[in-house]
Specification:
Length: 240
């Protein structure tokens, strides 16, 4: 599929466009060393883990397949997901989101190793675009994912990667075309950053003022800042 086939020329994000087959890849394999070794994805917002909340919002945005890459703390994360049973039913008249879990046997190799595993699994789902998301962003809503997909449909011809640019600062999730996925998989040491460095002319920094794309939880200070600036409290469950 070429971008020209996927694009829409309408002037507003709310205007209906043909659906893209977008597969989400959620990276949750890290050590969370700056969080004291506790898995950030299991922080609780109103009793729900950030990971369960993220998966639920992806489903509500109409994503039909999500690949979850685990590594460190995998058993704890899987148990928490099983206990929480997030609602993956999604919008009415849509197929419930299917969750595929992949284990990174060497997560210490870094995030690119997890990305490769996630993309390799997603490749078998014949995606047109990939949405690569982090598991520790507490503010993302279904509408934010829909806006990113709408932005891809309206992107200039030749765009192969889209990253939200929030007041000039890079955000997440990042959208990759199938071409980018295949290119990264052909280069064992590449991730999105490396591809972007080699093909800057094909990357769209999509301008946005939506801070949901910028905020993630890396340190205890981030948790305190979220409470101070947004009034949103994150807590640790008893198992952490």
């Amino acid at each position: 599929m070429t971008l020209k086939q996927a694009s829409c020329t309408q002037s507003t994000l709310s205007t209906p466009c043909p659906r893209l087959r977008v597969v989400a890849v959620v990276l949750a394999a890290g050590t969370a060393s700056r969080m004291g070794g506790r898995p950030k994805s299991l922080l609780l917002r109103k009793g729900q883990t950030l990971l369960a909340r993220l998966l639920q919002q992806l489903a509500q945005a109409g994503i039909e397949h999500t690949v979850l890459v685990l590594g460190h703390h995998a058993q704890l994360i899987q148990q928490a997901l099983q206990n929480s049973s997030p609602d993956l039913s999604g919008p009415k008249n849509r197929t419930p989101m299917q969750l595929l879990t992949v284990m990174n046997p060497a997560p210490e190799a870094g995030q690119n190793s997890s990305l490769h595993l996630g993309l390799a699994t997603a490749q078998g789902l014949s995606p047109e675009w990939l949405m690569v998301a982090l598991a520790d962003q507490p503010l993302l809503e279904a509408a934010d994912f829909k806006d990113l997909i709408a932005a891809v449909k309206q992107a200039p011809s030749g765009t192969q990667m889209l990253q939200p640019s929030v007041n000039g600062q890079p955000g997440n999730p990042v959208l990759l075309s199938r071409h980018v996925m295949e290119s990264i998989l052909e280069n064992p040491l590449w991730g999105g950053k490396e591809w972007r460095q080699h093909h800057p002319e094909q990357v769209l920094a999509w301008p946005s003022t939506n801070t949901h794309y910028r905020i993630d939880m890396d340190t205890p200070e981030d948790i305190a800042k979220l409470s101070e600036e947004y009034g949103i409290e994150l807590t640790w469950g008893q198992t952490h």
